[in-house]
Amino acid sequence: MDTMLQEIREIPEKAEAFIAGSGNFALPIGVPYLGMGSSYFASLAFKYMGVDIYPEMASEYYHYLSQGTVQPLGVILSQSGRSSEALWCRERFGNYVAISNDRSSPLAVHRGVIQVVELLAGQEHYSSSKTYVNTLLALFKGFGMDTGGKTIRLRERMGYYEEQGRMLADGVFNVLKQKKVTGLYITGSGPNLATALQAALILSEMTKLGFQGLALGQYDHGPKETARESVVIQIISHGASYDRNEKVRQMIEPAGAHVFRVEEPLADEWSSVLSTIIPFNFMGYYLAKYLEVGETFAVGGKVTEVN
């Protein structure tokens, strides 16, 4: 478990290494961006920043959307470069850009590759932490969006993020000890919908509990009826849904929901995606420790390989 904590604490170092070492590159717009899990969520954040890209799950694109056709250009993201669904999609493009943590992976050395963006996150044995943040940074940089002092802020604020994560773990663990919980929700809006989905993924992997990530508006359209004895973690950012978060909280807490909040008050809504995910990594570490969870990937491995 200490190795897991070390990986999370390396996020600022690896983010700075990517900004310094990745060189100049541009990413195409108006094309599909395909990935699974964390890789898909990262590109989804930029769709909700208004970037003209088409994020899709690689599995669904391959089986349902492509209909066997070959498009001239696309972007395929796979942190390992070995996820089966990402590799299937290589044949769906005449040329593609590969975004991966492994320049020698099957995704990055295929004949259709015209550009490789290496994430430079180093080895990662547990749920995506360094690689997810570096994937976001690759997209910020590739779309010409300023990364400026964002990585410096990550380093300066890691103590704050770890304390947030520990407090979340303490709060949720206390609820789990006392009550039968009816649901575990993480809500986000706009770019931070990606954060909610990523947070639910890593928390489910690390704690073996079924966390669900969804848009705040989606939660408001039905799942709020499960409020009694549920846990709801709201991702707060200064954007269009800021006030709605408070209204939802005022509605569901009296109905019996246990509401927690994650916010980086120093970041604007777009750049907040780099920081709001980090407390959830720490939360996963501490909550798994409290629950005495052992192996992170007990059902299958870290890389999903489909026969």
Structure commentary:
This protein has 307 residues and is an alpha/beta fold. It has helices spanning 2-9, 11-21, 38-47, 58-65, 84-88, 130-142, 150-178, 192-207, 216-220, 242-252, 272-276, 278-290, and strands spanning 32-35, 54-57, 71-77, 93-100, 113-118, 184-188, 211-215, 231-236, 258-263. It is globular, with a radius of gyration of 19 Å.
Structural class: alpha/beta
Strands of the widest sheet, in order across it, are 2-1-3-4-5
Number of helical elements: 12
E-strand count? 9
Runs in which pLDDT lies below 50 for 5 or more consecutive residues are: none
Average pLDDT across residues? Answer: 93
Kindly provide the radius of gyration, computed on alpha-carbon positions and rounded to a whole number of angstroms: 19 Å
- What overall geometry do the principal axes of the alpha carbons give? globular
Distance between the termini: 31 Å
Strand content bin: 15-25%
Fraction of helical residues: 40-55%
Give the topology string: H per helix, E per strand.
HHEHEHEHEEHHEHEHEHEHH
Concise description?
The chain is globular and about 55 Å long. It has 12 helices and 9 strands. It has helices spanning 2-9, 11-21, 38-47, 58-65, 84-88, 130-142, 150-178, 192-207, 216-220, 242-252, 272-276, 278-290, and strands at 32-35, 54-57, 71-77, 93-100, 113-118, 184-188, 211-215, 231-236, 258-263.
